Amino acid sequence: MSVRKCSVDVNQKDVVELQDFIKFNTLGTGTFGRVFLVRHKTNLKYYAMKVLRKSHVVKLKQVQHIYNEKEILLRLDSPYIVKLHYFFQDKKNLYLIFEFVMGGELFTHLRAHGRFSRKVTRFYIAEVVLAFEYLHARNIVFRDLKPENLLLDSFGHIKLTDFGFAKILEDNRTFTMCGTPEYLAPEVIKGKGHGVEVDWWSVGCLTYELLAGYPPFYDDERFGIYEKILLNKLSFPSHFSRSSRDFIKKLLVHDRTKRLGNLKDGVEDIKRHKFFKRIDWENLAQKKVTPPVVPLVGNEGDTSNFEVYDEEDGYDYCFDENVEDPFASKFADF
């Protein structure tokens, strides 16, 4: 049988096979594969199916990252984190099937607005803080925060997605250099080891980008970006408020022992910052705060909040028993 392992929905405990899904259009693309809208033939629910080409994963030495992503997501249950329902493989691809989050990427909404107001930014950053608080309490570092990895649900709340660079830490230290260049903390670039504090650096970068419409450290060349991060010369647009500047500065601190979120009171220092003075954290955690942007959504399979992509060949299911799997040993336990 070419599909070596059926997956179990961690909520409903039902065993399914890949043939149980109908594949529709592309929702997003990445280095290793694509994300498609799919529909379960029996329960008629829509999902987002992430298809990863084994050959690409192996070539780019991302096998362990894919294992990390699956294992971490199976442990998580947070309203601010996208939920993994099923996982499969065939002789060609790996498949991760997630809840379908209809509102699209925050990146898309940011580009449509140009930039967000302080009020809108504060709401999204506060929900990200709650997501990171949940992850860090479980010794999980995310390492890839950016507007493209934040989805909006149909009500406008955020969902953190793409855990390809996430990792469960031992002794709060790891040495792998990974993430989006504009959002890398200086300790990641220097390769001296890092922990969950890198996520708080990225919150500073995200706050800046949501308010300005562009990230704080940018260059046409990757090493130019790294140079600007290491020099840490911040330039704030005139419309940034005093509290916004102070909040960002205290997150974008090179010395991680002095970085907001990594001090004695941890995440509570962030929550108490004057940037969040109008946030009711208890109500926010219970989703009693109305989001500032409510996506326009239609039926349950509406993809209008996602970009339109040209469809590519090569992502069909692979059930041919005569096809060899050259990477079978690398994904034997997936």
Topology of this protein?
Elements: E1 7-8, E2 15-16, E3 21-29, E4 33-40, E5 46-53, H1 54-59, H2 63-75, E6 84-89, E7 93-99, H3 106-113, H4 118-136, E8 140-141, E9 150-152, E10 158-160, E11 167-168, H5 186-190, H6 197-212, H7 222-231, H8 242-251, H9 267-271, H10 281-285
Antiparallel strand pairs: 1-2, 3-4, 4-5, 5-7, 6-7, 8-11, 9-10
At CATH level 3, the topology of the largest domain is Transferase(Phosphotransferase), domain 1
User: What do we call the CATH homologous superfamily of the largest domain?
Assistant: Transferase(Phosphotransferase) domain 1
Indicate the structural class. Answer: alpha+beta
Which percent range fits the helix content? 25-40%
* CATH architecture type of the largest domain: Orthogonal Bundle
Largest sheet, strands/sense/barrel:
5 strands, antiparallel
End-to-end Cα distance: 15 Å
Instruction: Please give the count of helices.
Output: 10
Tally of extended strands?
11
Order of helices and strands: EEEEEHHEEHHEEEEHHHHHH
How many domains? The number is 2
Which band does the percent of strand residues land in? 15-25%
- Output the CATH class name of the largest domain: Mainly Alpha
